[in-house]
Amino acid sequence: MSEPKSILLVEDNPSDVELTRRALRKAHIANPLVVAEDGKEALDYLWGIGAHAGRDVSDLPALMLLDLKLPRISGLEVLRQARADPRTRRLPVVVLTTSREDQDIGAGYDLGSNSYIVKPVDFKQFAGAIAQLGLYWLLLNEAPPQVQPLGGD
Q: What is the spatial distance between Cα 46 and Cα 40, in angstroms, rounded to a whole number?
């Protein structure tokens, strides 16, 4: 049996990172969690550049959980760039943020997010939301086929 695919969490708040780790453990989701603390690090991870140079970019995460309010490169810009690149265009992206603003929700969907979830404040509700995310995106959802690189075999 192969290793489970990772979950890429793009989140700059250490408390929210820890809450997400706890919620995944509580839901018995064994996928490795890769944390990018800002938008630039997320893109570097996806494309195997910068601090992530040499990473096998064909090994995409099963899911990206994306905060919108990030330093260096915003979550919306991460989403825009991920959807513009054929390698990451089909990567399932769930916006997981505190923003309930119609403008952010609309922009998230316009740029190609698969889902938009406002983070619950209460840990019990947050853990429930993460458990449902894991059940749906990691077990029930049929992942899209990976795009073959141009010029590849």
A: 10
Q: How confident is the model at residue 50 (pLDDT cuts 50, 70, 90)?
A: very high
- The phi, psi pair for 71, rounded to 5°, reads -75, 165
HEC-encoded secondary structure of the chain: CCCCCCEEEECCCHHHHHHHHHHHHHCCCCCCEEEECCHHHHHHHHHCCHHHCCCCCCCCCCEEEECCCCCCCCHHHHHHHHHHCCCCCCCCEEEEECCCCHHHHHHHHHCCCCEEEECCCCHHHHHHHHHHHHHHHHHHCCCCCCCCCCCCC
pLDDT tens, residue by residue, 3-37: 789 999 999 999 999 989 988 888 888 899 999 99
Q: Which residue has the higher pLDDT, 140 or 11?
A: 11
CATH architecture of the domain with range 7-140:
3-Layer(aba) Sandwich (3.40)
pTM for this prediction: 0.89
